[in-house]
Amino acid sequence: MREGDLYRMRAHYGLGREAVQHGLLQPLRLDRSSVTGRVALDGKIIQIPDVLADPEYHATDHQQAFGYTTILGVPLLRDGTMIGVLSLTRFCAIDRGGVSAVRRRSLLARVANSRRSIEPVRQSRRRASDRLSVVLHYLEEYKLYMTPEF
Prior knowledge:
The strands form two sheets. The chain has a three-stranded antiparallel β-sheet, with no helix packed on it. A three-stranded antiparallel β-sheet has the order 4-5-6. The chain has two domains: about 1-90, GAF domain (Beta-Lactamase, 2-Layer Sandwich), CATH 3.30.450.40; about 95-150. It has four helices and six strands. The protein is about 50% helix and about 20% strand.
């Protein structure tokens, strides 16, 4: 949230204790060195796909504390006035065990969903196979009756 020319972290989710402490103690300036500053200056949504490759990005202490590589900033407006910036980050693999857990849960959910969508197909195939077996059985019997005797 905005405090004069500084932006302080007021809310967070899923961050480690060190990252939260850093965010609370190190406000960001209203300049182009961070996504927060850029959003505040430009008043629009800004994404930095790779902060390590961005020549203007200098909030490397935040990047290291939070462990992200990609960041998206969204302006928070009240009555047309900028009151803050919502930052969404994509974490790199450094100490982000929670991200791996989310990926595992997501993968398990996808597997469960695919099983649910495959099961009706399997049942339909079983029913068709059973019907075909019955038809073949009757054809065999019919063939026995229709075979001419010589």
